[in-house]
Amino acid sequence: MKSNIVRLMTEVPLESLHASLDSPVSASMNFLNEVALHYPDAISFAAGRPYEGFFDVDTVHRHVETFRAYLGERHNGDEALVQRDLLQYGRTKGIISELVSEHLRVDEGISVDPEAVVVTVGCQEALYLTLRALRRDDRDVLLAVAPTYAGAHGAASLVDMKVLPVRDSEEGIDLADLAAVVGKAHEQRLRPRAVYVVPDFANPTGTSLSVDMRRRLLESATRHDLLVLEDNPYGILGSEARLPTLKSLDRASRVIYLGSFAKTGVPGARVGYAVADQTVRTGFGTDVLLADQLAKLKSMLTVNTSPIAQAVIGGKLLENAFSLRAANDRERKVYHRNLHHVLQGLEERYPPGTAPMVSWTTPTGGFFVLISVPFALDDASLRHSARKHRVLWTPVHHFYADRRPRQQMRLSFSHLLPKEIEDGLDRLSEFIHEQIEIGGVC
């Protein structure tokens, strides 16, 4: 029997939903993924993904068994407790906090109480929880080097926290501009709460802060009463001697350290963490850790981070004596090789002093190189590049959280093979020369 039921579709106006859904940054990741899906034959310098050549499901199973044995020793062989830890809802702060703390000591020279560690669903949740805790009302603002990681803009947008841009520099951050931005914010009766930085191989520029700049940044943070949000997904992947983290140099508990195992552990596990050892005065005669406050927020957001996902990371840490730098020796060699291919390939295609005037950053590690070109780039430019030249890259406006075209693009080389890099640079060169010839108009 044919139904005569008429279904009325409820319309929800976009303007009636949260403002973050209409912001430029909210569409960034979906847009880049859609372009990649529409042009599967294009070589992609867009995705900042870890190298997949060493992925192995059997290794994941082994990591879980290693962590299971660790739990067995901790619980004196009580299998019921082991299974509860692995399969039941877990502690909000996480079940691998002690292992993360030891990893930080071994790889980063950071000494931290495991109780100051909150294990999160990726570093993105750690960033969201931190900003949610710091934003009490509309006066609270975040400072960030521009351009900066799109996810930082996204997290700030979700908690309704305004981001004030601080000028970039060859040293990674312009401290004079930082002071000026803080001063102007105070004049407007705003409260600058923190400055967000990626001190090692920043996304998208690839820039790293020198040791001297790290110390000066910490001094500036103390002077202006700012917290420092140190996001460090790439630090141990460098090809040179490891620079000290801001957290390891911190003597005044100014730094909230945001870590991720997405690049160095197993990306699909989606495990990150926040180290928040600052003291919170409760007003009830007792002080607690800021980590405890982040855990309160997490309990109302994701409840806990998957214990099974944590077991994968915990097992990998245990099998490698807590050193992910050692565990990623193969991957670091791949990233260093790929970075060399990109920098050498750019040098060969655009020799100094020749047209077109193309320049680029020269990082010593990480996943990204930032290229400057003599014409403006936007999402339409990327679509044209994908459609005609079969090469993808990321327009830099996505890292400013706006739609204004700029004369820069980010190349990510982490997941590619050398042949793909060479072919991709050839295709990119065709696109660049074409745009110069036609005045940058597709």
Automatic annotation (TrEMBL):
<feature type="domain" description="Aminotransferase class I/classII large">
    <location>
        <begin position="80"/>
        <end position="428"/>
    </location>
</feature>
<dbReference type="GO" id="GO:0030170">
    <property type="term" value="F:pyridoxal phosphate binding"/>
</dbReference>
<dbReference type="InterPro" id="IPR050859">
    <property type="entry name" value="Class-I_PLP-dep_aminotransf"/>
</dbReference>
<dbReference type="GO" id="GO:0008483">
    <property type="term" value="F:transaminase activity"/>
</dbReference>
<dbReference type="InterPro" id="IPR004839">
    <property type="entry name" value="Aminotransferase_I/II_large"/>
</dbReference>
<protein>
    <submittedName>
        <fullName>PLP-dependent aminotransferase family protein</fullName>
    </submittedName>
</protein>
<dbReference type="InterPro" id="IPR015422">
    <property type="entry name" value="PyrdxlP-dep_Trfase_small"/>
</dbReference>
<dbReference type="Pfam" id="PF00155">
    <property type="entry name" value="Aminotran_1_2"/>
</dbReference>
<keyword id="KW-0663">Pyridoxal phosphate</keyword>
<keyword id="KW-0032">Aminotransferase</keyword>
<keyword id="KW-0808">Transferase</keyword>
<dbReference type="InterPro" id="IPR015421">
    <property type="entry name" value="PyrdxlP-dep_Trfase_major"/>
</dbReference>
<dbReference type="GO" id="GO:1901605">
    <property type="term" value="P:alpha-amino acid metabolic process"/>
</dbReference>
<dbReference type="InterPro" id="IPR015424">
    <property type="entry name" value="PyrdxlP-dep_Trfase"/>
</dbReference>
